Amino acid sequence: MRALYFLCAGLVLPSIMYSVVSTAQPYPSRPVRLVIPYPAGGPTDYSARPVAQKLSQRLGQQVVADNRPGAGSVMGSELVARAAPDGYTLLFATGGTFLGPLMLPKVSYDALRDFAPINMVVMSPLVLVAHPSVAGSVSELISLIKAKPGALNYASAGTGSSQHLGGELLQSLTGTKMIHVPYRGTAQATTDLISGQVQLMFSGLPTVGQHVKTGKLKMLGTGSAKRSAALPDTPAIAESVPGFELVTWYGIFAPAGTPEAIIGRLNTEVAKVQSDSELREPLMSLGLELVSMKPQEFRRYTEQYVERWARVIKSIGVKVE
Fold first, then answer.
1. CB contact at 8 A, 73 and 96
2. What digits encode the pLDDT tens for the residues 188-233?
C-alpha cells in the first residue's frame, strides 16, 4: 500500500505543479475589458477610448472599450462590481458614478466599498452652455430665470447625473426655478439644445466645444471655483453665483479584492499613458487636465467627493425613482 501511495503521489504531484505553474501567467495574459457606463459618443468616450488604446500598447494586450449605459451609470457599474477581481474587467468611472447610489432607492453595490481605485485620468470643470437666443452671460441668465420661473428647461444626461446636480445646485444657490429634462446620454441632449428644444445644459467641454466655436451654442461659464487655466476668457459661474462649483473627473477602478500587484501595475501604466504627448495634448486642448494619483490618494479623494456631494444632495432632496 505504501508503495502504491508513493507511486500515485509521483504521478499526481507533477500534474498539480504543472497546473499551478501554467496558470501563474503574468498579467495581463488576455484582453482587458474597460466598461464605460455611459452611451457611446458622450463626453466620457472622449477620454476613455484614447486611454484604452494607449493602455493596449503599454500592456501588450487589447483593452476593449465597452459602453454599458443605463440608470445613470448604475448598470455598467454593477457589472464591474460583480466581476471577478482579476484585473480583466475595469470601470471607467466619473464622479457621477459615485453619486448615483446616494439618490437611488436600490443599488446592489456600494461605490466606495466595492471598487478599488486605480488612478484618476482627467479632471475638468463642467461648462454651462445655452442656446444663443437665451442669454449672453450668467448674470443675465439668472435675471431671466427669476423673471420667468419655470420658463426655461435645462437638459442633462439623466436624473442624478452631474449635469442634473449642477442645475439643482444653481437653482438652490440663486433661489430660481427651472424645468429639468433628463436624457439617456449627452449626445441627444446636445442635439436638442442646438435646435432650441431645451435652453440650457451643463456639459463637459469636449462634447460642446466645437458647437461653441461655430456659434451654435453660447458658453456662459465654467464650474470651477475660479477661472480655468484652459479657458481663461470664460468666467467662472462662481463669479456671479458665490459657492458654485461643479467639476467632473474620470478615473479607472477595478472590482474590490483585485490583487495589489495588479492595481499597482495598472496605476503605473495609466500614469505613463498620461505623460504621452499624443494623448496629453489633444485632451488638454479640450480643457481636460490630466491628473495622476496613487491608489490610496485616489481613494481619499473619492471619499471626500462623496461626502461633500452627499450633503448637497440631502439639502436639495434629489431622488431618482
1. yes
2. 999 999 999 999 999 988 789 899 999 999 999 999 888 887 788 8
Q: Residue 321's pLDDT band (boundaries 50, 70, 90)?
A: low
Reference 115, options 130, 101, 135, 132; nearest CA is 101
C-alpha cell read off for 78: 454593477
Read off the C-alpha cell for 105.
432607492
Q: Domain check: are 283 and 297 in the same one?
A: yes
20-24 own/partner pairs: CB under 8 Å, 24+ apart: none
Question: Based on the domain organization, do 107 and 59 belong to the same domain?
Answer: yes
Q: Which three cell numbers stand for residue 25?
A: 501567467
- pTM for the whole structure: 0.75
- DSSP characters over 94-105: EHHHHHHHHH-S
Q: Please write the tens of the pLDDT for every residue from 114-124.
A: 999 999 999 88
Q: How many independent structural domains does the chain possess?
A: 2
In this prediction, residue 181 has a pLDDT band, given cuts at 50, 70 and 90, of very high
pLDDT of residue 8: 46
Q: Are residues 209 and 288 part of one domain?
A: no
DSSP 186-228: HHHHHHHHHHTSS-EEEE-HHHHHHHHHTTSSEEEEESSSS--
Give the whole-angstrom CA distance, residue 79 versus residue 247: 26
C-alpha cell, 79: 457589472
Same domain, 140 and 234: yes
